[in-house]
Design brief:
Layout (H helix, E strand, L loop, with lengths): L6 E8 L9 E3 L4 E4 L5 E12 L8 E3 L1 H7 L1 H10 L1
Antiparallel strand pairs: 1-4, 2-4, 3-5
Length: about 80
Protein backbone atom coordinates (compact mmCIF):
# COMPACT_ATOMS: atom_id res chain seq x y z
CA UNK A 1 0.00 0.00 0.00
CA UNK A 2 1.40 3.38 -0.94
CA UNK A 3 1.56 6.13 1.62
CA UNK A 4 0.39 9.67 1.02
CA UNK A 5 3.19 11.62 -0.64
CA UNK A 6 4.68 8.62 -2.48
CA UNK A 7 4.93 9.66 -6.13
CA UNK A 8 4.82 7.15 -8.96
CA UNK A 9 6.62 7.81 -12.28
CA UNK A 10 4.24 7.38 -15.23
CA UNK A 11 4.28 7.64 -19.00
CA UNK A 12 1.38 8.85 -21.09
CA UNK A 13 -0.48 6.20 -23.13
CA UNK A 14 -2.84 7.34 -25.87
CA UNK A 15 -5.26 5.48 -28.13
CA UNK A 16 -4.90 7.69 -31.18
CA UNK A 17 -1.92 7.71 -33.52
CA UNK A 18 0.95 9.70 -32.10
CA UNK A 19 2.67 12.15 -34.40
CA UNK A 20 6.15 11.83 -32.92
CA UNK A 21 9.09 9.52 -33.48
CA UNK A 22 9.20 8.34 -29.86
CA UNK A 23 5.74 6.71 -29.78
CA UNK A 24 5.83 2.96 -29.16
CA UNK A 25 2.88 0.85 -30.36
CA UNK A 26 1.09 -1.08 -27.60
CA UNK A 27 -1.09 -4.03 -28.62
CA UNK A 28 -3.00 -6.74 -26.75
CA UNK A 29 -0.18 -9.31 -27.01
CA UNK A 30 2.28 -6.86 -25.40
CA UNK A 31 0.75 -7.56 -21.98
CA UNK A 32 1.77 -10.32 -19.58
CA UNK A 33 -1.55 -9.83 -17.79
CA UNK A 34 -4.53 -7.54 -18.19
CA UNK A 35 -4.54 -5.10 -21.08
CA UNK A 36 -6.29 -2.25 -22.83
CA UNK A 37 -9.41 -2.32 -25.01
CA UNK A 38 -7.71 -0.59 -27.94
CA UNK A 39 -4.38 -0.54 -29.71
CA UNK A 40 -2.50 2.35 -28.12
CA UNK A 41 0.84 4.17 -28.08
CA UNK A 42 3.24 4.61 -25.18
CA UNK A 43 4.67 8.14 -25.12
CA UNK A 44 8.04 7.95 -23.30
CA UNK A 45 8.59 11.63 -24.11
CA UNK A 46 5.54 12.47 -21.98
CA UNK A 47 6.67 11.51 -18.47
CA UNK A 48 5.07 12.73 -15.27
CA UNK A 49 4.57 11.74 -11.65
CA UNK A 50 1.39 11.30 -9.66
CA UNK A 51 0.76 10.65 -6.02
CA UNK A 52 0.36 6.90 -5.69
CA UNK A 53 -2.82 7.03 -3.63
CA UNK A 54 -4.81 8.63 -6.51
CA UNK A 55 -4.26 5.60 -8.78
CA UNK A 56 -7.50 3.62 -8.73
CA UNK A 57 -6.42 0.43 -10.52
CA UNK A 58 -3.82 -1.17 -12.76
CA UNK A 59 -5.03 -2.12 -16.26
CA UNK A 60 -2.28 -4.72 -16.69
CA UNK A 61 1.40 -5.46 -16.77
CA UNK A 62 3.63 -5.38 -19.82
CA UNK A 63 5.41 -8.51 -20.98
CA UNK A 64 9.16 -8.49 -20.34
CA UNK A 65 9.90 -8.30 -24.10
CA UNK A 66 7.83 -5.11 -24.38
CA UNK A 67 9.51 -3.65 -21.31
CA UNK A 68 12.89 -4.21 -22.99
CA UNK A 69 11.63 -2.53 -26.18
CA UNK A 70 10.38 0.45 -24.23
CA UNK A 71 13.72 0.63 -22.38
CA UNK A 72 12.71 3.60 -20.22
CA UNK A 73 16.22 4.70 -19.30
CA UNK A 74 17.51 4.37 -22.85
CA UNK A 75 14.51 6.25 -24.27
CA UNK A 76 14.82 9.06 -21.74
CA UNK A 77 18.52 9.51 -22.55
CA UNK A 78 17.70 9.46 -26.28
CA UNK A 79 15.00 12.11 -25.86
CA UNK A 80 17.14 14.38 -23.68
CA UNK A 81 20.11 14.07 -26.04
CA UNK A 82 18.07 14.97 -29.15
Amino acid sequence: MRKRGDDVPLSKIITNAAADTYAIPLEADDFADGGLNQVSNIRPNRLFTAEGNIILYCAGGLASEKMKEVGWATKIIEIISA
